[in-house]
Specification:
Helix content: 10-25%
Largest sheet: 9 strands, mixed
Strand order of the largest sheet: 1-2-3-4-5-6-9-8-7
Number of strands: 9
Number of helices: 6
Structural class: alpha+beta
Amino acid sequence: MSVTQLFPTPASSTSITYNAISGTAISDDLMKSCAQLFSTNYGIWGENATSISKYIKPGQPVKMTDSKLRSQSVSIPDHTVLVTCFHHEKLVGHAFASVWSFEGGVVGWITQLVVDRSLRRRYIATHLLQTLKLHPLFQRVTAIGLVSSHPAAPNVDVYAVDLSFIREHAAKILEASPVDYIKSAQLRGDLFQENSNTGAVSSAFTEFYVDHAEPSKALEQFKAKGKWCLGELLEGHEYLALFPVSPGRALQ
């Protein structure tokens, strides 16, 4: 299934096209374009990245091959959605998400969200996530989840996060995940550990040693505007966010 949406961006009068595509319909060419977008716009490796591989050097761009992207974000094609954003026939944003059942509901998990650096702050991420709800898979979800090293990734009202919901459901959702890197993630922070004393509140240890300079700047802006409840971001960790939704109203 492919769903097309046209949204005007506040920064330009040019229309941008959004498409929701089922995982089984993602072509090799589109996957290569998504991998290239990630590799040129995501971030750089941090100082501890050498613990992953001796071939990785701190400061180098975090890169992704199309085969690795498919294995990580489209491991369950029948239950996966890709939303793309094209501007003048160029891919400038994408969001991958997979849906699975867990004890207590159905989760829609955003496995990757990337926007071209030159077009950020134009609500592209917002519309990518909004377009997900148009796909039939998302009509039955009761929770939205993601892990990310960037505090702005959830793209929702982070000041209204229900920490009790995260504490109650996070372990069940990760345990039921058919996506390997999510299933193997270790829950860390005050919500999941007694006397953690790390400053983390809701995070997952994923061994993703991306540089935290840019996320730290964004975090300070969030803190300056109001209460930030997900805590500090530790090396090799990502913030973990979960949001309850009513079936048929995901991401509204």
